[in-house]
Amino acid sequence: MTPLAISPPRSTPEPDISSIPQDAATIPTSAVPQALTVCIYVNKQANLGPYLDRKKVQQLPEHFGPERPSAVLQQAVQACIDCALQQKAVFSLIKQGYGGEMVSVSASFEGKQHLLSLLVVNSIGYVLRFLKKLCRNLLCDNFFSNQPFQQYSTVPEGPEVYENRRMEAGRQLDQL
């Protein structure tokens, strides 16, 4: 049996590299965790339809975020509820999430506080699709965007279009 060769101890120590500055070029990008964030802009000049109060909308921030997608989604949906002419009507248009981690939005009506859970999401696309569907239900297209809005008044829609949308919203309110 041959004995294992044991190497003699090194006589020169390893160089100390702790004092060498490291810049982004020497750190692999995979080593720096990047949190996914989203920023949703509010169009305060949008046609708000029959559900949202323009005075309350004017008090909203210019945007929500940049933050995690689930935080921005919660803030934007809560803003719609908070700006509602009737919170019950807006609250009923929001789709509840099930399973997984949740964030909550709340509304006060009929003398009670009501909670609704939204699924925590990590997808910017999901946030945009959810808000687009919500705005379509609220009859206030172009209320949210992932791009800043120009600060000029939009061309108002004709009286026939507005009246049709108002009547449809009234029928939906009557069904509540």
From TrEMBL:
Residues 37-147 form the SLED domain. Transmembrane segments: none annotated. InterPro entries: PcG_chromatin_remod_factors, SLED, SLED_sf. GO terms for biological process: negative regulation of DNA-templated transcription. The keyword Transferase does not apply. The keyword Transcription does not apply. Its main location: nucleus. GO terms for molecular function: chromatin binding; histone binding. Keywords: Nucleus, Repressor. GO terms for cellular component: nucleus. It is found in: Nucleus. Residues 1-22 are annotated as: Disordered. It holds the Pfam family SLED. This is SLED domain-containing protein.
